[in-house]
Amino acid sequence: MEERTSDSASTPSTAAGKPYHAKRPHRKSRAGCRNCKARKVKCDEGRPVCRPCTVRGETCVYVVVPQRAPRTSTSSSPASSPDRGPTPSSIALAAGGRHTTVTQQPQFIPSGHHEIDMRLLWFYTTATYASFSTGTLKERSVDVVLKVNVVQHAFANPFLMNCILGLSAMHINHLGIKNMGISRSQEMQYRAKAFETYRKAVAAADPTTYPALLATSLLLCGLSSHVFRGEDAKPFSILDWLTLWKGIGAIIEVTHIPAVFRTGIAALVFRPAVDMDASARCLPSHLLFMVASIKEGDPDFPLVQKYYKALKFLGSLYLELRNGFSEKLFLRIVTFLTFLPKPFIKAAKEKRPRALVILANYLAFTRFKAGACWWLEGIAEQEIPNIYNLLGPEWEGLLRLPMASLLVEDNRALIRLLLDDPSWDEPARMEAESLTSESERGLAIRAAILEDTTPEVEAY
């Protein structure tokens, strides 16, 4: 290849052989008028009319350039003021020798919502969602569904959004986090609004809302659990709770199974299959005898098969229990009420003793410490004594185990009690906290309570 000489390289020329002259440098006009920018000519930025527009006799229009907000330090940001709650964009926490950043409050507030809504939505996506998660199961993994798909449906369906916000408010107050600025009265308002808008959506029966209705029917079961605790507690609330759980099945029937899978939230309503024969073999003999002893002429005789069916579903809990407290056992506990046949629920609402005995023995399983599932807490403590006091000494033997479960605070000890096996032990499966991810949920809760700088919220 022929080398270019320094002379030829230093003598630039055009294709026509004319000498090349570089453009004279000039200051760019960043605030020029619209006409000059369109013609790509330099504007002298004269006000109110620039010189080029004066020469051309055109109307001179300047583009208004918004000024940037001055930078402020973190300490002077309104987000950190005591009356607004903890609203920094992120907070760093030390976890296991590492620094983990937990995104705290969203800075964008969509139209139709206010800051408290977004605060509650943030808490749902970082902590409350885990109340309905069973960890990572081969058959069911719902974390992404709960944090992403459900929230997407919530922005399009206010009744689902109201449920999420009410559930988060309830969770915050359950944990006693005062600096989130959520009072008991606000919690009650969100909860009432959730139920009101849900009832209206069910009555409207708009097919486009079915996915959101399905998600709401599940979350409402947690939202309604306030009736088992504190001043809200009402005896035999478990009977109304049964109807809510069966409502999930009613929504599925309306939606149809194939349509449920197309919604992207089918994992929420997954129930592990039950081996009815194997489950029946695991049932305590005294419960089987309770049903087998029903004679013709007994008011419960027409319900014998329904009682047996309910007992077999209860047996699936005992069958799974042999492997220790696991994610699948927790899922079986949560979904148990959805399996119960309608005639059994009717018998329970009539407070028939055998139906209540079966419910009391189920409630003993809700005593397990299930990590993030805070809304199950207190249900057994409330309802088992109510059933015991109603039925009296005649049924005391069949209620011995549920009553004894109230005195147990350890998962291992509860398994030994339920299996009637004092030597049972499997430490590797006893950590209930493995059901959820502590790295995100735990740090989010710690971030929320890191600094309690707000005044006391209104007491309910």
TrEMBL record:
Q: Which UniProt keywords apply?
A: Nucleus
Q: Which residue ranges have biased composition labelled Basic residues?
A: 20-32
Residue ranges occupied by any Zn(2)-C6 fungal-type domain in the UniProt entry: 32-62
- Stretch list, region Disordered: 1-32, 70-99
Which SUPFAM superfamilies does UniProt cross-reference here? Zn2/Cys6 DNA-binding domain
- PANTHER family named in the record: STEROL REGULATORY ELEMENT-BINDING PROTEIN ECM22
| Protein known as | Zn(2)-C6 fungal-type domain-containing protein
